[in-house]
TrEMBL record:
Pfam families: LigB. The lineage of its organism: Eukaryota, Viridiplantae, Streptophyta, Embryophyta, Bryophyta. Residues 4-257 form the Extradiol ring-cleavage dioxygenase class III enzyme subunit B domain. PANTHER family: 4,5-DOPA DIOXYGENASE EXTRADIOL-LIKE PROTEIN. It comes from Sphagnum jensenii. This is Extradiol ring-cleavage dioxygenase class III enzyme subunit B domain-containing protein.
Length: 269
C-alpha cells in the first residue's frame, strides 16, 4: 500500500468547499485500491519529546483550536482505535533503535488527523491510531521513524502523514488574493526534490530548501512528510497528487510515495 502525506490546513476545512477539501473527499475513490485494515496517522499537532502512540479502543475527538464557530466544536470523529496495532508500532520503533516509545492510553485524535479523515472516510469505521512527531529532532530522526513502519504498509495498513507543505500562520493573510512568492518557491523546490528522488535534500530540508524557516518556523507540520517518505521503504517513487494554495501562505499540496524494490542507494541517516 502506498503511503501518503496530505495538507489539512484550517480546521474549517471540515466545512469548506476548497480544492484541497474536494481532493480529500475524493481521495479513497481516486487513490485507494483497497480499503485499509487500519490507519496510522502522523499529525503535526501531536508533538512530543519522544515517539508516542495512542493505545485506545475508541478514539475521542480533540478540538485543539480556539476562536472558531460553535458548529466546529460539535463535530465528532470517534473511529475505533487499534490497541494491538499501536503496541506493534511501538515494538517496531523500539526495534529500529529508538530508546523510548510512550503508550498514551487517553489521547484521541487531534484535528490534524480527524479533519482530513472526516472528509476521506466519513463513516469513521476504520480503526485509527496516531504516532507523534518530535519537532525538537531533525529530519533524519523522522525518516528513520518512518522506515521502522515500512513493513506495515505491505500488510494493508494506510500510513498517513498530515501537516501543511508551508505553515507560517503569523504571515497568513485571509484577505489576500494572491500567493506569496516564497511559498511558491518552497513548494516548487519540494516538488522537484521529491519527484527527482533528491531525498537526502528533503531529509535535510532546513539547510537545503529556499525559505525553509519562513515556510516552517516550527518543523511540526513538515515532519509527517518525512515519516511517510521513510515508511514507503526502499527507493520510493514520489507523486504529487494535489496542488493548491490557500490564504496567501499555505501550500495545500499532497504526495503519494509508492514503494518499489530497487538497488538504488538509500539516503543516509
Amino acid at each position: 500500500m502506498t503511503s501518503f502525506y496530505v495538507s489539512h490546513g484550517s480546521p474549517m476545512q471540515a466545512f469548506e468547499n476548497t480544492p484541497a477539501a474536494d481532493f480529500l473527499k475524493e481521495f479513497s475513490n481516486l487513490h485507494m485500491h483497497e480499503r485499509p485494515k487500519a490507519i496510522i496517522a502522523i499529525s503535526g499537532h501531536w508533538d512530543t519529546a519522544v515517539p508516542s502512540v495512542n493505545v485506545v479502543s475508541r478514539n475521542s475527538t480533540i478540538h485543539d483550536f480556539y476562536g472558531f464557530p460553535k458548529e466546529l466544536y460539535e463535530l465528532e470523529y470517534t473511529a475505533p482505535g487499534a490497541p494491538e496495532l499501536a503496541k506493534r508500532v511501538k515494538e517496531l520503533v523500539l526495534k529500529a533503535g529508538f530508546k523510548t516509545v510512550v503508550e498514551d492510553n487517553k489521547r484521541g485524535l487531534d484535528h490534524g488527523a480527524w479533519v482530513p479523515l472526516m472528509l476521506m472516510y466519513p463513516e469513521a469505521d476504520i480503526p485509527v491510531i496516531q504516532l507523534s512527531v518530535q519537532s525538537s529532532k531533525d529530519g533524519a530522526h523522522h525518516y528513520k521513524l518512518g522506515r521502522a513502519l515500512a513493513s506495515l504498509k505491505d500488510e494493508g495498513y494506510l500510513i498517513l502523514g498530515s501537516g501543511t507543505i508551508t505553515h507560517n500562520l503569523r504571515q497568513l493573510d485571509s484577505n489576500a488574493t494572491g500567493v506569496e512568492l516564497w511559498v511558491k518557491e518552497f513548494d516548487q523546490w519540494l516538488y522537484e526534490s521529491l519527484t527527482n528522488n533528491r531525498y537526502e535534500d528533503v531529509i535535510n530540508w532546513s539547510t537545503k530548501a529556499p525559505h525553509a524557516r519562513r515556510a516552517h518556523p516550527s518543523s511540526d507540520h513538515f515532519m509527517p512528510l518525512l515519516v511517510v517518505l521513510g515508511a514507503a521503504g526502499e527507493a520510493p517513487t514520489s507523486e504529487r497528487i494535489h496542488s493548491s494554495f490557500e490564504r496567501s501562505t499555505l501550500s495545500m499540496a499532497a504526495f503519494a510515495f509508492h514503494g518499489a524494490k530497487s538497488e538504488k542507494k538509500q539516503p543516509s541517516v
